[in-house]
Structures are given as structure tokens and as C-alpha cells.
Design goal:
It is a single chain. This protein has about 525 residues and is α+β, with helices and mostly antiparallel strands. It contains 10 helices and 17 strands. The protein has 2 domains: about 270 residues, 2-Layer Sandwich (Beta-Lactamase); about 190 residues, Histidine kinase-like ATPase, C-terminal domain (Heat Shock Protein 90, 2-Layer Sandwich). Strands 1, 2, 3, 4, 5 and 6 form a 6-stranded antiparallel sheet that branches. Strands 12-14-15-17-16 form a 5-stranded mixed sheet, covered by helices on one side. Strands 8-7-10-9 form a 4-stranded antiparallel sheet. A hairpin with an 8-residue loop joins strand 4 and strand 5. The C terminus is likely disordered. Its main location: membrane. Its EC number is 2.7.13.3. GO terms for molecular function: ATP binding; protein histidine kinase activity.
Amino acid sequence: MPVGIFLLVSAITGLSVYAIEQVETQRAEALNRQIALSASSAMERLASANTVYLRAGAVLMSMQPRMNSTGFHEFAAQLDRDASLRGGGAVAWMQAVEPGAAAAMEDKARADGLAGFTIHPAPQGRVALPVIFVHPVDAVQPGVYGYDPMSDPVRRDAIERAVRSGRPSASGPVQLQSASASGPRTGFGIFVPVFDGSGAERRLVGVLARAFNAQGFIEAALGDDRARGYGIALIDEASSRLVPLAQMGRQVGEGHRIVTRVMFADRPMRIEISPPEGSTLSNLSLLTLLFGMMAAALLLVVARLVTQQAAEDRAALAWFEEQASIRNSLTRELNHRVKNTLANVLSIVTLTRRRTDDIDDFVTGLIGRVRALSATHDLLTQSEWGTTPIRAVVGAELAPYAHDADHVLDMRGPNVELAPNDALSLGLAIHELATNASKYGALSVAGGRVEICWEMITDKLARIEWTESGGPVVPELRRRGFGTELIEKIVAHELKNPVDLRFLPEGVSCSLVVPVRTPAPFQLRGGQGGEG
């Protein structure tokens, strides 16, 4: 009853906490979706604003007969002054150069003040777009002037798409040169083509482009939202490898991220938002759990005090009943063990008497077999009549011959445990085989060898092989002794499997199949004792 009351109050408390947490989870998910939508909208707005401004600049440049440095820098400076356009890097003007006109272009650029201007890499029979102007000037890295982005597959793909469509186009991930000590940073670029003329007569004059450091782009778009503890990752979805261009904050597992998709120019981008790690339980849930468990504990103590005396009386009665049951069980178990042992001894005496004419041989054989039975009993007693390893049974019966240097004993096999009755039967068989070997076989001469190996043949059966070699030749005509009778009848009967006993010229060979059975547990409360 006390436990029932405690469990009932605990269950009510648990259901209340669960309901509160469900509401809190739904509220947190709604907030996370709102923040994810806000973050993706902010990045899309920033990319769109820069794209619109670059496109407007491209229209103005197409109206001028020739782009000059002053006009370009005045236009690019507007980007830096407009707070809504911040987050981008350098703005560059790349002038189209037809094949064969590269040398003239280089001479003219050098004459305009770009000393050492060279188009690189050298164009190979294609239109080149070398960088002519860059803003801001202090962001220019060595080698930027004259660099042809058409030599880079990622940039070339974006430029060619922009030229074909006549609209701004964003590139995939590119490495941007940085003036800081941190070295190159991953980013992307937006390219806007500038044409002279219209329709079929239009001619590519150049390309206006702006580079975006992906990390700086995220920070500029989110502003103060960075302090909220959310993780942000910007990924180029058109790339074969969905590797983040930039990420900030703690990233969670894929199944817990909120994914939104946006378009930068004409390129699909994916934004993954990782919500911050929430607390285990809300404050309201913790208070509910605390007061619920206090009430449950108080009711448990009261109910326990009421029922304690009754429980003590029942325990005293149960103890007396248990003692009586244990005495009865021990008496039945002892009776069972004694009957089994006496039956084995009587069988040994009967067969020994039938096969022995001399009283000394009878006594010697009987003593040896009873000792073998006793040795196995010792093993079973040590294991409290539980399971006994095959190796221990074989080792106990062969102990008298184990340290004799005149012959070799080889025992090997896995760890296999036998039930008590099966261990007794195996011990008798090994004793008879060892006695025969010491009198007539491999253990009777120097250089003899006995090999005992065992293995599991199924999950319920183990095979034990006894093989003798190096002993006297076994005669074809021989007297059938008690050992043969015991092994082929008593042992086979007890093990419930036939025994293959062969007297080969080179030595005795015996194969026994032993069941691997788990002994029935000894029941202390009125159950039947003994093993299965």
C-alpha cells in the first residue's frame, strides 16, 4: 500500500511535468522557427540588396563609352557608405579582352598607371576578363590586377551563366585573398555582365563583381542576433559537396537543425540553424516535480508507519515456514544423492564380481573404481554440486600418471561444463581407460602417449576422444573385461549416448558423446532437489 500510494502520486506528478514540458517544447520550436526564418530573410535581403545595386551599376557602366577609374571608385564607394549593403568585400571591374588583343590591353593598362600589368594566367584562345579596377584600393592583394577569373572553373561557371542570362549570377565556394594574417577565407562572388548595345548586336564589355567573405556576410546580416546562442551554417546547395561556406556558434545533429533555402542571385543556398541547448526541465516543471515528490514521500512515510507492524508479523511467520521448507528440501536432496551414489557402487560391485575370479583382483579393482567415484565426488563437492569442467574431471582421474616422465599425456579442448551425474559417468569411463592403459596400453611402457581432446559438436553435445599410441600392440584376440562392460553399458546408459570403443593394433581408441546439460537449481522452498 505505501508503494502504491507513492507510485500514484508520482505518476500524477510525472504526467503534470510531461504536459508542461510538451507546451514548453512547442513554444521553443515556434521560437526557433521564427528565428530561423528571420536569419534566412536577413541574409537573403543583404544578398538581394547588393545584387540590385550591382545591377544598377552595370546599367550605368553600359551607358558610358569607356569605364574610367574615377567613375568606378565613386560608384563602389556608395556600397561602403550604405549600411544596408555592408557585409561584402572588394568590388572589381573586369574588362572583356578578345583573343589576340591581350598584348594591346596590357600596354594600355600600363600607360594608364598600372605598372607591370599582365593578364594572368595567359588566355588560351578565349575571351579574357582581367581585373582592371578594385575598390577599396587598400584591399588589393599582390597579383589581383590582371588576374583573369575565367581561369578558375568556379568563377568561370558563374560568369558564363551571367553572360548567357544577362542577369547577376553567384558563384560557388571560392577562396578569397585576405589582407589579414589569417590568410585566405572561403566565400562567394556575385557577377553582373555589362553589355554594349542590345539584342543580337550586344557585345560584352566587362563584368562587375563583388566578393563576399561568407563569415563576414553572416555576421553583417544577423547583427545583434549573433548573441542569441544559435548556430548558423551557410551551405552552397548547387555544389557537389555540401560543405559549409561558413558557420558560427554551436552545431547540433542533423535531425535537430532547422533548414531554410534562399537564392543568392540565381544560386540556391541553404541556411541551417542549430537551436541552443535547452535546459533539462523548465522552472515550472522543476517546481511541480519538487512539490509532487515531497507529497509522495510524506504519504509514503505515513503509510509505512501504519503497515510496518503487520509486515514484521508476516515476516516472522514466513521465516518459520522457510526454515521448515529448507529442512525438508535438504532431507530430500541428501536422500537423492545417497541413493544415486549407492546405486553406482552396487553396479560396480556386481560387474566387478562377475568379471573377477580372484579375490585380490576383485578388491583391487573395486577400490580403484570407488576411488575414481570419490575423486569425481570431491570435484562436485568443490563446485557445490553445480557444473564441473571436463578438464577437471579428466585431470583428476589422470593425476597419478601426470608427472611420469616415461609417457606423455596431452589434454586439450574448450571450457565445457558438465552436470553432476554426467561428470560422475565420465570420471568412471576415464578411470577405466587409464587403468587399462597403465596395465596393457600406452601408459605401461616408456614412450607411450595418451591424447584426450574434446569439442562441442552441437550446442547440447560434446565429443571426447581418447587415443593411445606408442604402447604395446593390441592383440586381436583378447578377453572382454569389466572396463569394457562398464564403459559400453553403464557409462553409455548414464550418458544416454552410445560409446565407440575400439581396440586398434596401435592402441585403444574411445569416443564418448556427453550431453551438456544445465543442472536444475536447488530449490529451498519445497521444490524437488537434484540435477536434471
